[in-house]
């Protein structure tokens, strides 16, 4: 999914933003977040969750590969990987050859792979399926994200959940609370508009209506947030250099840069509990192998560098990373050596608290639903597990009463 399409999805979902901030309500929270990080607050004893969204629909069959199943090779003659190229996890499944860093984490028992994750009556629309994943409501459309409802339920401040994406994702939007959002590249003002002019707009006037005063405060916070973010990035570069640990998330992709900011916040002991980052481009309708391998290389380098960096500190060892996409791809390839929109796929869970291994059941390639995989794990089981184990919450409260059987890739909360 390209940036424009992704932005259309977010706008259509009712959460928009510009510059450094996504919503007026998020402005103060993000400023407070970065200000607290500069004061080096005591470590937060709670776990932290990093949600990595792969926009476009990741091809799960060529990510976690059933290399020993002859049907995989028969159904995908042009797209299947030979068994000798696959990074074997066991005698049936293996990782894409571009995921060598994740294979190291697997060997260290810090990578869990949840197989066949999906939801009932799958929808093959990017917008609707991602909306389902981010709201955790497969039955009816709703306007609050599952993390946003947790923010509502805990009366959380905006800095409790932060997105390092261009706009606030729906998953962080609640009915009464929302997370904070900062643009990766910082504030970009139009030509002829400088800090001084925006700063003047941020000065409240005596006796003005409350909404105007709020707007003025938002302008002021916009600049303050941007300055604080830039200072944090400059400090990181000064401390470690461009290849040192402060930026060492393993590459120059946008995901690596987002995770570098997450790492910086974790190491500074900011009070954020949930971070949202993303990587787009997984809508591989043509030339799957080349494009998918490039994306998986970026994903591998960014995730591996981040998890290894987090392992160096006690705060970092409390971080759990969950990687998901809105759907998998069709089992058979198309006429363009690509794959079309499908259904179920693997979810990756990484971190110092994770018990590595395979969870769930790999979908059958002989029992398909109109050419698509049948989900074997409801995605709310994954969400419920991290809500309980990482955030210490009652999963049913934030998943519309869905009864969760926690998956044992994390210790019980």
From TrEMBL:
**Source organism (scientific name):** Plantactinospora endophytica
**PROSITE patterns noted in UniProt:** TAT
Q: Specify the domain of life of the species encoding this protein.
A: Bacteria
A Pfam match: DUF1501
Q: Entry's InterPro entries?
A: DUF1501, TAT_signal
Which protein are we looking at?
A: DUF1501 domain-containing protein
The signal peptide annotation in the UniProt record is none
